[in-house]
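Notes from the 1:1 (GR / supervisor)

We went over the backlog. Supervisor wanted to see one worked example end to end before approving the batch request, so GR pasted a single chain during the call. The sequence is below; no edits were made to it. Supervisor asked that the structure be written out right there so they could see what the output format looks like.
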Amino acid sequence: MEFTAEMIAGFLGGEIVGDSGAAVHTVSSIEEGKPGSLAYLTNPKYEPFLYTTHASIVLVDKSFMPSQPVAATLVKVDDAAACVLRLLEMYNAAKPRRRGISPRASIAEGAEVGDDCYVGDFAVVEAGAKIGRGAQIYPQCYVGAGSSVGEETILYAGVKIYEGCSVGSRCILHAGAVIGADGFGFMPNAAGGFDKIPQLGNVVIEDDVEIGANTCIDRAKTDSTIIRRGVKLDNLIQIGHNVQIGENTVSSAQTGIAGTSRVGRNCFLAGQVGIADHVVIGDRVQVGSKSGIDKNVPDGEIRFGYPALPGMQYHRSAAVFKTLPDLARQVRELSKQLAELKKQ
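Structure output shown during the call:
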């Protein structure tokens, strides 16, 4: 679909500097801009690219004044960063939406599929499963017996929803995500091996959650593993059994949360964070990348390192750590001097 500068300015309430008929059909970064693309300038350090970009239209703040001639058409708006998000949403909404049930899909008798759904090739929907109106189930997905998928939710190719699990409305689950596999529960036995502990609970994912590719959320031993409304999980994350994650919490890739831990609302977990079992993390907590959390964290705290320390304590410790070689050398020299004084 093609948009002109005039259409974009009208949609965003912007001003045009240049050719109002300039048209775009895709979006690009300003440094990689090509003819027919819309770029944007939201960070001053990228301004030099404005004068060399081949993008047809560039979105800028109204306060911005170029210091050199600009070949592209400019659309000036109150807040370029916010307008970029609106345009991306508009562009995404304009993409064709898949509809219909493939004859190669397997939908069991007794399963319910709502109106205006898409179910792709070789997708499997088991008996008792419920698919909400407008949901999109891409090829090779599996929705287990008694599970539910809410309205307008998207399951991309290869997503697996085990039996009895619930996914809310307007969720997005990316390729390869696994919801409801058994929690990692084993008990040592007298023979030196391990007996499997049955995992009888389920996973409940509330509305407006996004889950990245190949992320795994284990079912509870009893009761439910719960992902609350608005949570955003990146790729390759492991959520253990009976974990609860609070509303609007965000986690970057490769985070691992062990069983029965709880993470509060509006938290941010950076990449490769590890959280031990039975830990309680409060609301609005921020955890730096590669940090290990083995103790409870109060509301609003910042943690870094392994084991994780409060923010300023970590930075002070890191400053000392960098000087350890010099400190070690000084200690050796002082030890030699002390030994010589003792001889005297």
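Supervisor's comment: Helices lie at 5-12, 47-50, 80-94, 311-322, 324-343.
Batch request approved.
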